[in-house]
């Protein structure tokens, strides 16, 4: 009778003890198999054979192009992300323990994280007339600075100043002959004043 009771208790209590033990496995680094806590494979490895009552878990390294970034009992590693697609580039290479990190070319942004696809960046000002004065972005708390005159405006001013200076030099050179100077002054008086006004206006732009 006692032997029958012992057998009954063994059959009834063994699953309970196994369940209790399995519930106390470290969920991060262990998994339960047949009532035993078995070690998960480390990052960079995959499961080859599960543990048994007489042997531990057998793991093998991930092959090239695959990775595992956490403790796991999966039989397959994860495929590395492909950064060779259009508009994408590789920011960091894939290893057996870390996935590749992809980025998008200038003018494009990732649709999601991880970066699986790129989309063109659109701004609210796209398509608007940009001929008005633009402001240059600065750091927070600093007032934006307006852009100065374009290079074509500076070129025009320089040409006018050079012409005015040339005219003045010409007048000085021939001023030794007063008769010629009086004649030039009478014939070019209006044009001379016009050039002086232009020169004055151009120099005030600097």
Automatic annotation (TrEMBL):
Keyword Signal found: yes
Recorded coiled-coil stretches: none
GO cellular component: a single term: external side of plasma membrane
GO molecular function: tumor necrosis factor receptor activity
Residues in TNFR-Cys domain copies: 24-59, 61-102
TNFR-Cys repeats: 24-59, 61-102
Transmembrane domains' residue ranges: 154-174
Signal peptide bounds: 1-25
BP-aspect Gene Ontology terms: activation-induced cell death of T cells; extrinsic apoptotic signaling pathway in absence of ligand; motor neuron apoptotic process; necroptotic signaling pathway; negative regulation of apoptotic process; regulation of stress-activated MAPK cascade
The protein, known as: TNFR-Cys domain-containing protein
